[in-house]
């Protein structure tokens, strides 16, 4: 055949406007993930490796006691001259200051002695008052002035912080504590959730719909709310205190009970899904092979739901080990990792050590995440085989024992909330039970008042609106565009990462990154924007997966057809993709809204006096001893979320009704 | 318009030229140096087994998946590197890809709406198109309310709405049941004739290709095995793969004697001229319907064999017989006999007869096996 002269050149496509737009958008969203996730975490990691030490050899001192200047000596040699028990501690943090006069045993600010100090090495810095002196000149001071001279530490990189961490028993103890309560909570929650889900799926008991609804309630409240209820029930004045047989609720017991409460719905959803997809034909086969009910349970039901059980276990473990609010409220002296981060950062201002604890906390979270992802992939494979759903048959004994079990769980869940609501509405539990709205006068308490509640709603709305847009557009670009393969893979990875990052860790990383005056994004620090940013990022993964699932269900040739009809991508996106995916989009926004209302850990480091949030107010009021107002605020969050869910339900229903002509179900 | 291999001969310039196209997926070559010309108004089918690269070639022509190297020219324009939106084609996929949330009319109008036409003008064009595909009253329905065959026709209407120069169809009928499929074959073909659009259809159904195409491009393992009219492809397969892939074929191992003869066991057979070297191992191929039953006992003359009918199967308009004879080994020889011939010769299972393998129907291909061709 005649050659066209097109020969064998390597093909590189011409890009049309669409392709440029797609690339631009992809870049913007990738940039979002880099700025909101990758960079802060990198900075945090590097902080955990930064150590600060007073390098006394870098400063030289001369003294004039009236008989002329002495020979210059380094501060180090002065320190060495001190008796062993008086020598200064040289390890410090980035904020450390060391008063030079501490090295001079006979110092008196009234003496006529004069002092000269100079930096003897590049990079050495000392302060006179707030004046920063970094040059290499001699500076002279009277003894009264010399009181105010402090040297600043030198930074270096290394594992020193980690060495310090692992050689401090009180800190290391937290690892064991965290692992212990997370393990116990996991076993309890998964067992309970499995029993609950099993009863709902495999018996004919009444009120299933109601139980299913009740099981999901804990998602709507901050994780520290059960802590407050437990304080009322079992605390020092609790009327059920005797039930603990002398044990204190402040500590592992309280944390575990509260953890079971707030992780229950997560485990329940996963296990219920796993049970729903297991195959009735297997059961029929087992019955036909004359396997008894017990044997069928262990050989068919449990193996069928095993991926769900394992996945639920990892999710619960991660939730508990990374949770901050609950142990803060009810942990008492029992230290756990998430609270340690808070104590290091807020209490001791030791940011480097906070970063070290964060990295330690990242390890189990990342492992759990990786295992969970691997399992999810297998579960999907198991799902693809067509299963026939199991229809339970009436069996009074099983039905009523299932009912009893579900009732106990439901009473536990509703009871926790009822206690909070009741305590919020009485004058002073347990002494004066007359009704009162005094606890709702938030403006009179420390914590932010009604303004915090308003801020929370605003923040949740922003997070829902902006987050949904970013997540959905991002998922669309990853899922439905061509080329740019490495970029897309990287993007996928970044989108999955937030799931493995505990909220506290993200928050601390944001302090390091955004609070740095050298960062051009520094202006975000202390604004509503940074709260929205951290919330959206913290809850990015689940939202992203929801969007991807919805997009995968769309015919992957739509884009090709649209291009062949010479239509821009955005038109297809607006006219087809978004309308078809609207239920998923609504799901993402309600997910972001509810979580923005309840999250504490992602925002506790980042709020400013003008941007206090309701969930943080619960924490702070509880901290200040205003427990009833804290409960009242917690319940406000609950009612707000219920209202949001109702709106979401109405919207979804209305949408499905209006579009059922074309939606095949 | 049963065109021969290149209508218009040298004078006409092809509408679509594909030159030395290569597509690699990592180390795997899905298309190996494909070159092809398509004339204006032609209906061409890409035919081949699953995974041979038909879809890949079609998508490269559309610009949906860019080739690794090579060029494509359409209507005198080099489109090799253009994005799909700057090429001139309409496409129909196996899944139809109708927008579920838009009515049938809006689906068809999707491309027209941005041309700056008046609403009334668009409505008129849509009505015409729906009329053309035989669904004039369905405009207000949603795709999910239509049958598969109807959805297919809407997808077709949408694809031709912008009057594209090239219509691409990727297995458009394979999701439909057999009856609808045969009916739609007809419709698509006559629609294509009426509007005269150059059309490329991908299929792995040989019947579909034989009944619809002006020319068929038979592909295998990323290369073109043969291009030709359905009759050429069927009667004069260029390779053993084509011979075997299309229709039924008896294959017999032979040794080449000279340019027109081959030896099957003890028998020297006259066959179609070929270019194989004497002494080479080769495969002799003949279609069952080309095996001729002869009256009387004429074994002596050329290309005749005495055989026994070991089994017969009634297939409606003809009988298929399995013939056993010393020359044909364990596999035997398949032959299709008309109902007439059966009656005339009184054939039945176990009966002996003489068959002739006409020299002009005996193809000789290189190689001993079927799967060793490239
Ligand atoms: N994205 C891809 N990555 C890797 N290999 C691919 C990809 N797309 C196609 N292939 C391979 O290229 C070859 C040709 O694929 P193609 O889809 O063109 O086949 P086809 O002839 O259309 O087959 P079918 O009749 O099954 O549709 C196949 O072997 C396929 O596995
Ligand atoms: Mg294909």
From TrEMBL, chain A:
Gene3D superfamilies: MetI-like (1.10.3720.10). Pfam families: BPD_transp_1. Keywords: Membrane, Transmembrane, Transmembrane helix, Transport. It is a multi-pass membrane protein. It is found in: Cell membrane. It comes from the Bacteria. InterPro entries: AminoethylPonate_ABC_perm-1 (IPR017664), MetI-like (IPR000515), MetI-like_sf (IPR035906). Residues 175-372, 453-648 form the ABC transmembrane type-1 domain. The chain crosses the membrane at residues 20-45, 179-201, 213-235, 255-277, 297-321, 353-371, 403-426, 459-478, 490-513, 525-551, 636-656. GO terms for cellular component: plasma membrane. GO terms for biological process: transmembrane transport. Belongs to the binding-protein-dependent transport system permease family. This is Iron ABC transporter permease. It comes from Thalassobaculum fulvum.
TrEMBL record, chain B:
Pfam families: ABC_tran (PF00005), TOBE_2 (PF08402). It comes from the Bacteria. SMART domains: AAA (SM00382). The keyword Secreted does not apply. Residues 16-246 form the ABC transporter domain. One of its GO terms (cellular component) is ATP-binding cassette (ABC) transporter complex. Keywords: ATP-binding, Cell inner membrane, Cell membrane, Membrane, Nucleotide-binding, Translocase, Transport. One of its GO terms (molecular function) is ATP hydrolysis activity. GO terms for biological process: quaternary ammonium group transport. InterPro entries: AAA+_ATPase, ABC_SmlMolc_Importer, ABC_transporter-like_ATP-bd, ABC_transporter-like_CS, AminoethylPonate_ABC_PhnT2, Mo/tungstate-bd_C_term_dom, NA-bd_OB-fold, P-loop_NTPase. This is Fe(3+) ions import ATP-binding protein FbpC. It comes from Thalassobaculum fulvum. The lineage of its organism: Bacteria, Pseudomonadati, Pseudomonadota, Alphaproteobacteria, Rhodospirillales. The gene is fbpC.
């Amino acid at each position: 055949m005649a050659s066209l002269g097109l020969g064998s050149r390597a093909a590189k496509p011409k890009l049309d406007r669409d392709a440029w737009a797609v690339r631009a958008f992809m870049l913007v969203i990738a940039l979002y993930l880099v700025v909101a996730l990758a960079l802060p975490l990198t900075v945090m990691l590097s902080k955990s490796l930064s150590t600060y030490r007073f390098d006394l050899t870098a400063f030289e001192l001369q003294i004039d006691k009236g008989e002329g200047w002495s020979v210059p000596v380094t501060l180090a040699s002065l320190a060495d001259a001190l008796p062993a028990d008086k020598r200064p501690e040289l390890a410090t943090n980035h904020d450390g200051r060391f008063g030079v006069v501490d090295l001079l045993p006979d110092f008196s600010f009234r003496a006529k002695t004069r002092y000269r100090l100079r930096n003897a090495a590049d990079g050495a810095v000392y302060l006179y008052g707030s004046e920063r002196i970094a040059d290499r000149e001699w500076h002279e001071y009277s003894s009264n002035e010399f009181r105010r001279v402090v040297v600043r530490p030198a930074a270096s990189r290394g594992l020193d912080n980690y060495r310090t961490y692992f050689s401090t028993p009180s800190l290391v103890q937290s690892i064991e504590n965290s692992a212990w309560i997370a393990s116990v909570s996991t076993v309890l929650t998964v067992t309970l959730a499995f029993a609950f889900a099993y009863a709902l799926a495999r018996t004919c008991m009444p009120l299933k719909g109601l139980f299913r609804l009740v099981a999901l309630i804990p998602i709507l409240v901050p994780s520290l709310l059960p802590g407050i209820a437990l304080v009322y029930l079992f605390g020092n004045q609790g009327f059920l205190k005797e039930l603990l047989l002398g044990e204190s609720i402040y500590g592992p017991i309280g944390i575990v009970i509260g953890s079971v409460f707030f992780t229950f719905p997560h485990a329940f959803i996963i296990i219920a899904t796993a049970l729903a997809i297991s195959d009735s034909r297997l059961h029929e086969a087992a019955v036909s092979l004359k396997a008894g009910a017990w044997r069928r349970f262990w050989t068919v039901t449990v193996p069928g739901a095993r991926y769900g059980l394992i996945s639920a276990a990892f999710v619960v473990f991660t939730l508990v080990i990374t949770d901050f609010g609950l142990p803060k409220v009810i942990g008492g002296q029992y230290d756990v990792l998430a609270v340690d981060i808070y104590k290091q950062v807020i209490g001791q201002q030791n940011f480097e050590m906070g970063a070290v604890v964060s990295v330690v906390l990242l390890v189990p979270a990342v492992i759990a995440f990786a295992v969970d992802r691997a399992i999810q992939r297998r579960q999907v494979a198991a799902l693809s085989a067509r299963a026939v759903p199991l229809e339970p048959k009436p069996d009074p004994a099983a039905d009523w024992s299932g009912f009893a079990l579900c009732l106990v769980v439901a009473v536990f869940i509703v009871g926790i909330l009822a206690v909070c609501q009741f305590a919020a509405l009485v004058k002073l539990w347990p002494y004066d039970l007359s009704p009162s709205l005094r606890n709702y006068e938030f403006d009179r308490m420390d914590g932010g008042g009604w303004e915090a509640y308003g801020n929370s709603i605003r923040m949740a709305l922003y997070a829902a609106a902006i987050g949904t847009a970013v997540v959905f557009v991002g998922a669309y670009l990853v899922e439905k565009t061509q080329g740019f393969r490495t970029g897309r893979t990287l993007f996928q990875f970044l989108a999955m990462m937030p799931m493995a990052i505990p909220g506290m860790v993200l928050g601390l990383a944001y302090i390091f990154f955004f609070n740095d005056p050298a960062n051009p994004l520094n202006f975000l620090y202390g604004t509503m924007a940074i709260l929205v940013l951290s919330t959206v990022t913290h809850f990015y993964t689940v939202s992203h997966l929801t969007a991807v699932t919805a997009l995968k269900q769309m015919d992957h040739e739509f884009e090709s057809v649209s291009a062949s009809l010479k239509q821009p991508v955005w038109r297809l996106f607006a006219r087809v993709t978004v309308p078809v995916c609207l239920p998923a989009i609504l799901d993402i926004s309600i997910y972001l809204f509810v979580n923005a209302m309840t999250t504490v850990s992602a925002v506790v480091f980042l709020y400013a006096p003008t941007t206090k949030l309701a969930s943080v107010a619960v924490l702070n009021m509880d901290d200040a001893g205003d427990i009833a107002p804290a409960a009242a605020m917690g319940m406000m969050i609950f009612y707000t979320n219920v209202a949001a869910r109702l709106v979401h339900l109405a919207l979804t229903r209305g949408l499905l009704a209006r579009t059922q002509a074309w939606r095949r179900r | 318009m049963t065109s021969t291999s290149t209508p218009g001969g040298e004078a006409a310039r092809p509408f679509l030229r594909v030159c030395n196209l290569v597509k690699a997926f990592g180390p795997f070559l899905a298309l190996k140096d494909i070159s092809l010309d398509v004339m204006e108004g032609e209906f061409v089918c890409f035919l081949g087994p699953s995974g041979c690269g038909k879809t890949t070639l079609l998508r490269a022509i559309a610009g949906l998946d860019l080739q690794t190297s090579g060029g494509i020219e359409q209507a005198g324009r080099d489109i090799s590197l253009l994005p799909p939106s700057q090429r001139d084609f309409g496409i129909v996929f196996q899944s139809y890809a109708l927008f579920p949330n838009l009515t049938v009319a809006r689906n068809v109008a999707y491309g027209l709406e941005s041309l700056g036409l008046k609403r009334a003008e668009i409505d008129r064009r849509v009505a015409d198109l729906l009329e053309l595909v035989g669904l004039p009253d369905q405009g207000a329905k949603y795709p999910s309310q239509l049958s598969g065959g109807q959805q297919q026709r809407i997808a077709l209407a949408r694809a031709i709405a912008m009057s594209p120069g090239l219509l691409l169809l990727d297995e458009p009928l394979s999701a439909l049941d057999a009856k609808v499929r045969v009916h739609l074959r007809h419709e698509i073909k006559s629609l294509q004739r009426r509007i005269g659009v150059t059309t490329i259809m991908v299929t792995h159904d040989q019947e579909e290709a034989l009944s619809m195409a002006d020319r068929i491009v038979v592909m295998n393992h990323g290369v073109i095995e043969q291009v030709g009219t359905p009759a050429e492809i069927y009667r004069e397969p260029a390779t053993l793969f084509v011979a075997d892939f299309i229709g039924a074929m008896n294959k017999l191992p032979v040794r080449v004697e000279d340019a027109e003869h081959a030896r099957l066991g003890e028998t020297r057979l006259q066959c179609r001229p070929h270019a194989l070297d004497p002494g080479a191992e080769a495969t002799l191929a003949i279609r069952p319907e080309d095996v001729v039953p002869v009256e009387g006992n004429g074994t002596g003359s050329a290309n005749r064999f005495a055989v026994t009918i070991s089994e017969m199967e009634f297939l409606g308009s003809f009988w298929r017989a399995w013939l056993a004879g010393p020359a044909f080994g364990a596999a035997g020889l398949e032959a299709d006999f008309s109902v007439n011939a059966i009656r005339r010769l009184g054939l039945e299972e176990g009966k002996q007869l003489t068959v002739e393998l006409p020299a002009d129907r005996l193809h000789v291909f290189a190689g001993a096996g079927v799967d060793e061709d490239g």
